[in-house]
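ingest -> validate -> predict -> emit
validate: passed (alphabet ok, no gaps, 113 aa)
predict: started
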Amino acid sequence: MAIDIKNRRSKRLPFRKRIRYGQRSPEYTGHTLNLSRHGTVIETARVFPKGTKLFIEIMDNINNDGIPSDTLILNGVVVWVQRSLGLTHRGRMGVEFQNYQRIEAMYQSRNKS
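emit:
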């Protein structure tokens, strides 16, 4: 269930980055679709139930070898889930950051409009 735009605490910005995530360690991969000050939407083959705490690594500035030069490590909680989307077998989950202060610089650099 998505949050009504009027009820959001901050604006969502386009933000597609590779991520690794899991409950105790980064076991799974996916990518973000957008970013707000307080969370992100993750598209992936492995979604977790609402209320699940996640360890998240957002990989930024990936070089030609596929290695990120910057990795932001965050904790979050799944706040909504959308299971598999048709033929892609990928779902989406909204994740609220628990330590969202760490994302502030990344958010501000993309919110200069």
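DSSP finds one helix and seven strands in the chain.
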